[in-house]
Amino acid sequence: MKKLFTISMALALGATAMAQETKVLFIGIDGLRSDALQQANTPAMDALIDEGLYTFDSWHLGVTSSGPSWSDMLTGVWEEKHGVTNNSYTGSNYNDYPYFVTRVKEYRPDLKAVQITSWGPMSDAVYNDGWDQKLIPPTDDACLQVAQIQLLDPELDLLFVHFDDCDAAGHGNGFSTDVAPYMNQIEYVDSQIGQLIASLEARPTYANEDWLVLLTTDHGGLGYSHGGLTDDERAIWWIARGGNVPNVEIFGEDPGSYIAGDANEELIPLTPVLTDIAVTAIDHLLPEVDPELEEEWDLDGKSWLDFATYIEKGEQADIDFTVWPNPSNGSFYIEITEDMASHANVRVLDMNGKVVKVIADNLASNTQKYVNLGDLEAGVYMLQVINNTQTSTRRIIIR
Ligand SMILES: [Zn+2]
């Protein structure tokens, strides 16, 4: 089954690349906490989630300020490489680690790329970044209008739109699900996203284009501020829809363990993080290039387009594990019955090889782990246990 899956994926990728021009819309929402997004009424973002890959369990690995965070996303590397650790952008090392726009233009020099933000420092303080146009409308509403005008241009290939007002509402009133002005602003920005997506899908050329929509936030917030390393500042979210991104939710049960460089770093390969934005965008815009293999670029992020390849990457050795009861109503216990070099995570695939659930958790050796798959439809699935160097798959039945 695995081989058939890989071949059919390859055919699908090839067909898409030949038929349609690949394009990216990247929507950045400043200062939107993960718990607040989950509680707010956000039909436009929900519609993207319904068709896309998403997680509410992403985790900020660096300085939770805007300058470093947008740099993580736009360069595909962490602050040790891009050098930005504050909002003045001093110390930036964009000559060695430029925005992904510059990387894409090495292969697609005619790519038309536009950045729209009302947050001055992102446009004023950043020089070597590859945009054809950097527009600085005075407000979020003006950003939306300017973006909608840009979307009328059939030549447009890459649009980055940044909405700043959730962050402003957090600073002014508090970053919390209990703060009405903050929650109201989230719902307002959702309506702006709805209008933006409507304009995208109204392009006369839309049917002949392959748009990947990426959305995320730069940081959360605590009290009236952010910049530190508390859970409330670091817990973020990540959405992608279109291209060859699978329709799946990525779970991470213990985001507090995603500290770069510590023993749980093996969780990061299975969870979307900020640097994955650039790498996924490059992968989509350059179907012939694997950005993770471009040594000179030295990217830290990973692409969620070739998500299926994690099966192959981990296929060097088996993991001995048992799963019971099987069949069940969706409640399973898993036990890994050997000593592993690194902790493992769980994925569930349907019989077409499509990933339907990822539980990015910390499975230790010789420990029982409870997994609840009760929200999946009854049927036959493949349950896969995977770590950096090993993977094993068992057939399970949900009744
Ligand atoms: Zn802020």
Which descriptors would you attach to this protein?
twelve-stranded mixed beta sheet; alpha/beta; 30% helix; 2 domains; binds zinc ion; 399 residues; Alkaline Phosphatase, subunit A; Immunoglobulin-like
Detailed description of the structure:
By secondary structure, the protein is an alpha/beta fold. It has 13 helices and 15 strands. The protein has a twelve-stranded mixed beta sheet with strand order 4-3-5-1-6-7-2-8-12-11-14-15, with helices on both faces. A three-stranded antiparallel beta sheet has the order 9-10-13, with no helix packed on it. A hairpin with a 6-residue loop joins β9 and β10. Residues 1-17, 253-267 and 308-316 have low confidence and may be disordered. The structure holds zinc ion. Zinc ion is lined by residues 31, 66, 167, 171, 226.
State the domain count. Answer: 2
What letter string, H or E per element, gives the SSE order?
Answer: HEHHEHHHEHEHEHHEHEEHHEEEEEEE
Distance between the termini: 22 Å
Helix proportion: 25-40%
Assigned CATH architecture of the largest domain: 3-Layer(aba) Sandwich
Please indicate the percent range of residues in DSSP E strands (runs of 2 or more).
15-25%
Summed up, what is this model?
This protein is α/β, with parallel strands linked by helices and 399 residues long. Helix content is 30%, strand content 24%.
